[in-house]
């Protein structure tokens, strides 16, 4: 069953966290979408993070990127603890993919200047990405679209955003490098109103087919891959 649960802003760890949407798809996968409104000082309050995570944070020079990093951690912490799981921070593997330190659930995080999206699943790897529907997608489209996908996209920005987010989400799900977006991550044609799509990963270990869920917020496109 797929359903959508809209939440009001809620106080978690003494911070008013405007989680604008929280919903489940594909039965056991949960998504939380949070709008970034806090300052860096507010976002650091009661945040659980390891020394390695704080060391990573210290390397971020731009204030906006600091807010995005902190907001991502706060959203993960809120989502995990609200499900009665222990949260002890995140650890990244050799490819930079985040994993929970003290919980068995799978996780993926994405953030923009305005929104954070977090996806979790009890057992299956997940990938999530959010991208603004913007003109720059037309400039970079030849780098990530196959000829077939280019024909289907027809220079439509919403379709271009869908393709980009789908491929990025599948890349995050896979969790290793040396994957070519154009050749190795084909996306099946989709209807403009579709909420569910199909994507593929083609690599040496063998092809895989994955389910994709598309969502929208303001002028941002989001894709979850499971």
How would you portray this structure in words?
This protein folds into 2 domains: 3-124, 4'-phosphopantetheinyl transferase domain (Ribosomal Protein L22, Chain A, Alpha-Beta Complex), CATH 3.90.470; 130-225, Ribosomal Protein L22, Chain A, CATH 3.90.470. The chain has helices at 40-44, 51-58, 63-82, 136-144, 147-153, 157-174, 181-184, and strands at 3-5, 10-12, 15-17, 19-25, 29-35, 90-92, 98-100, 106-111, 115-121, 127-132, 196-201, 208-217, 220-225. With 226 residues, the chain is α+β, with helices and mostly antiparallel strands. The radius of gyration is 17 Å and the shape is globular.
Describe this protein with a few key phrases.
226 residues, Ribosomal Protein L22, Chain A, 5-stranded antiparallel sheet, 31% helix, disordered N terminus
Record the SSE blueprint:
Blueprint: E1 3-5, E2 10-12, E3 15-17, E4 19-25, E5 29-35, H1 40-44, H2 51-58, H3 63-82, E6 90-92, E7 98-100, E8 106-111, E9 115-121, E10 127-132, H4 136-144, H5 147-153, H6 157-174, H7 181-184, E11 196-201, E12 208-217, E13 220-225
Antiparallel strand pairs: 1-4, 2-3, 4-5, 5-9, 6-7, 8-9, 10-13, 11-12, 12-13
Helix pairs in contact: 4-6
């Amino acid at each position: 069953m797929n359903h959508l649960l809209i939440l009001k802003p809620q106080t978690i760890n003494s911070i008013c966290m405007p989680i604008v949407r929280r919903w489940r798809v594909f039965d056991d996968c949960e998504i939380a979408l949070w709008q970034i409104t806090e300052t860096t000082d507010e976002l650091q309050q009661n945040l659980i993070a390891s020394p390695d995570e704080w060391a990573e944070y210290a390397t971020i020079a731009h204030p906006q990127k600091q807010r995005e990093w902190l907001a991502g951690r706060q959203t993960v912490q809120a989502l995990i603890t609200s499900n009665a799981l222990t949260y002890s921070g995140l650890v990244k593997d050799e490819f930079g993919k985040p994993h929970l330190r003290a919980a068995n659930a799978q996780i993926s995080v994405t953030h923009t200047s305005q929104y954070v999206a977090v996806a979790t699943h009890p057992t299956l790897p997940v990938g999530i990405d959010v991208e603004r529907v913007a003109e720059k997608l037309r400039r970079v489209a030849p780098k990530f679209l196959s000829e077939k996908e280019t024909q289907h996209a027809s220079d439509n920005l919403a379709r271009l955003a869908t393709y980009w987010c789908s491929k990025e989400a599948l890349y995050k799900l896979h969790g290793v490098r040396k994957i070519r977006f154009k050749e190795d991550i084909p996306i099946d044609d989709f209807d403009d109103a579709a909420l569910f799509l199909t994507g593929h990963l083609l690599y040496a270990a063998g092809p895989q087919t994955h389910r994709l869920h598309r969502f929208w917020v303001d002028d941002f496109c989001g894709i979850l891959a499971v």
